[in-house]
Amino acid sequence: MKRVFLLTLLTVLFFACDSTNNAVAEAEDETSVSPTHVAVIEVEGMMCQKGCGAVIRKGLYETGGVSEVEVSFNEENPVSEIKVYFDINKTTTEKMLSVIGGLADMRYTAKLKKVTESKIVMHNSTSKENTIQNLKSVPATKASAATFSLPDLTKLLNGLIR
Fold first, then answer.
1. Most exposed: 9, 24, 66, 70, by fewest CB within 10 Å?
2. CB–CB of 33/67 below 8 Å?
3. Integer distance in angstroms from the first to the last C-alpha of the chain?
4. Global model pTM greater than 0.70
């Protein structure tokens, strides 16, 4: 019985790992967006930060021009504020407002508050001087093996089998 369970578990893990290639490709597409503008959107109808915020984030990322979404949720205020960093050449504010309005059975009402140019600058130059200058400005960080440990996978799997 243990062998059948273990074989089934390994088969599921093998096939589950096959679908990670699509997730990696989608993540690379999201990170390749260079934001040119920031939109501040007021949203009514949000019930919570985690659930509603995640639904809105996912919907906006799927528009294909959004690099980051910041959700500010306050239970006492019926209107929440969302900052969307996006590439104006890949998506529009009208499309984002339409996406938010269509989410969760049209629970949310979105209104554009303002749009400004992004202050985030993406450098594609590989100049050695720029690289050295940027490295000098980064503070040093110390890491030690005493603060990080990997879980013992054999104990974890044995616990699942027993």
1. 24
2. yes
3. 11
4. no
146: DSSP letter: G
Give the span between the Cα atoms of 9 and 153, in whole angstroms: 14
91 burial via Cβ count (<10 Å: 0-12, 13-18, 19+): buried
**Number of CB atoms found within 10 A of residue 53's CB:** 19
Q: How far is it, in rounded angstroms, from Cα 26 to Cα 30?
A: 6
Euclidean distance between CA atoms 108 and 110, whole angstroms: 6
Say how far apart CA 118 and CA 38 lie, in whole Å. Answer: 6
CATH node for 33-136: 3.30.70.100
pLDDT tens-place string over residues 111-123: 999 998 876 655 4
